[in-house]
Amino acid sequence: MRPRDSVYLHESNDKSSEKCGNLNMTKITEHGKKVRKNWTSYWIVLQGSSLLFNKGQGEKIISSPRDVLSLNVLCVYQKLEFSVELKGGSVNWASKDKSSKKHVLELKTRQGMELLLQSDNDSHISEWHKALTEAIHTYAWE
Ligand code: I3S
């Protein structure tokens, strides 16, 4: 278990499915039971098959290219609240009955958690849809 309030760095290549950024999130089901919505802004880091939810502002540092084809992305996060395992999960655009907000993704985990991810920026949320879909697909068979 990682101590809280330390600084963590996660470096990846920008062509991989790994990424970080701010999204609004609410859980709607936990351990298979419906829970009351509580929309909160998180700094989210996609790291392999894990999605890390951090309170407070993180940082995405794009460092000098090591080669001409790829940038290096450094995701900095400090206040890890919780994480979810994507392996065996699914992500889809949420239906209108799930939320009145625009640009909402519904993420379901094998552990029985369902949560909504939202951004007012449609290209931002589309990138997350792509990255999460790729991560779920990549780790599905491991
Ligand atoms: O699915 P719901 O119940 O319509 O979701 C809304 C409520 O959770 C509401 O909270 P209260 O029931 O405590 O007033 C939230 O403030 C809204 O944001 C929720 O709806 P959206 O459509 O924003 O997900």
Automatic annotation (TrEMBL):
Record domain PH: where: 16-137
Organism domain of life: Eukaryota
Protein name: Rho GTPase-activating protein 12-like
Gene: arhgap12a
Interval of the full protein contained in this chain: 389 to 530 of 794
